[in-house]
Amino acid sequence: MSAPSANTSSGNRPAAGKLDAVVIGSGPNGLSAAVTLARAGLSVRVYERNATVGGGLRTEELTLPGFRHDVCSAVHPLAFASGFFRRFGLEKRVPFVVPTASYGNPLAGGRVAMAYLDLDRTVDALGVDGPAWRALLGPLVEHADAVAQFTGSQLLQVPRHPFVAARFGLTAIAQGGPWWDLPFRTEAPGALLAGVFAHTTVPLPSVAGAAAGMTLATYAHARGWPIPVGGSQAIADAMVADIVAHGGEVVTDTPVESLAELPDARVVVFDTHVKHAAQLAGDRLPSSYLRRISRFRDGNGVFKADFALSGPVPWTNPDLYETATVHLGGSRGEVARAENAVAAGGHSDAPYVLVSQPSLFDGTRAPAGKHVLWTYTHVPRGSTEDQTEAIIRRIEEFAPGFRDLIIGTATKNAVQMEQHDPNYIGGDISAGAPDFGQLVARPVLSTDPWRMPGRGLYLASSSAAPGPGVHGLGGYYAARSALRHEFGFTRMPDLAPGPGQTIARPVAALPDPVHPHELPEQ
To answer: Can you state the angle between helices 28-39 and 473-487, rounded to 10 degrees?
Structure first.
């Protein structure tokens, strides 16, 4: 297991004392809130129940020594698009590798559909459907920053870029409706879209799934889907370093069961599920708000399996060695059937499996010649069923001989996911179902959903707008609201790294792709 991150204290609760702000939880949103508040010159303390910081940004030796696995998030399409991370200068603080292909979908018969960072290359590879792919995504890719602004905030807003927002909305509605197969004539582009739509735990087709998927597909061609060198923990560590550099504190191994346990503070920021925030706040919240929160629904869960491998996954089609992200689901219809089985409360016989193979691009993740593989599949909320064999079988369909490479396995079912992180109620890693209604009202319908009605209370987690994903925006917006309402700030602090804080080194080039002759004999 990885050691606690630097610049944190653990064990004993610090002595009580007046603080400007307390943050409960050190996930990406809790840390972004703390960064913003500390940069404003406020005294800030973050409390984390676990021994290491990060929430969904943790990297640990889950299987065998020397094999470093991302505990939750692995690939970060929002790292270069998020308004917070861009203000924070994340690319200057953490080295990233951007694969030449953002994601791939293997299909029957050894075929594969690839979404390359280069839109032109993707269009060429799709052949007869290339022009339709360009017509669908090209205008969004061209205005990717406007897409990021619109989708990276609450939906209850007057769009800053109304024409881009309108085009995005119409595209999501079209792709989320019953005619989602139009305008394609072959299987590949529909499979590519279904693979990204299925990142959400919602039925397909649906407007919510299409909106999330179109966002990811846009970034796939605009900036790529980067992976942080060293694992997702590097992102959390960069934020912790900035908090400490500006006078803040991060305290680990300290669960918070009641606000009475905390030192007096003008502001409390919750990087927790909204229901847990309501429990902690208790009688500081009006009954009308508590009734609204009680109707906030949790989504379905995930089953996660991490593998230590003696070699790279032996994909039938070597094109998949160009990407860190593989969607195993087959055709668009097959992906929809798998996701809809889960939405109906069952387990699919042919599940959609999301795969990340970071050690193809980052040699720090595994011993020389060895590899790590990150996978999950969707399951009904609260499921205890072991999906390890189903995941292995699914990989074997497109990579015969995969089973023989496994030298270590670590798994968590949906219940164990919640035990690991209480924000994941029933295994829901989105901290609340990300359907369309709950993306508009997240967690309630409000022009300032991060500000809770109890004085000085703010919600920063994925239960608040803009919802799930490693973007830090929920925390940034919560801190921004607190600075305005509690401290009278009219301008937000500069978050850019100063001299001595730029730690990233450019990654000169991707490693050579794995070639079939390097694979173990079948």
So the answer is: 40
